[in-house]
Amino acid sequence: MASERRNFVEGGVYHIYNRGNHRARVFYESEDNIFFLMRLYQYCAREGVEVLAYCLMSNHFHLLLRQEAAESISKVMRSLGVSFAKYFNWQYEQVGHVYQGKYGARHIKDDADLANVARYNHQNPASFGDIASYRWTDIRTHLAG
Fold this sequence. Notes:
It is a single chain. This protein is 39% helix and 19% strand. By secondary structure, it is an alpha+beta fold. It is globular, with a radius of gyration of 15 Å.
């Protein structure tokens, strides 16, 4: 069965998210997070997508992305999903799906919506204590600016 086609608008900002299959971990070691982020930025640069914010948790991730062309995010997420799944399955000697399904995507309507989603994303690591010291989010960049 074909997956539902997404309708990303040109110039749109989107909250992109997904979690591990069966809610399992997808980020075990720092190298996993580093690989994910390196590929994210590589594919975004290639497709003209700006990373506005990110937060990687042990079993899920949140991204805020702005695209210039209408299908850029689709291309980024397809490349990132395939690349990370191959890496993860090789690294941990597994087969099959890494994520529970196709990533979620929600169009950000306005600046207030953007601020709320960014705040929500950056609150994810609150259970680890000081949010500003959590390594796998870009909150420090936003606090400094």
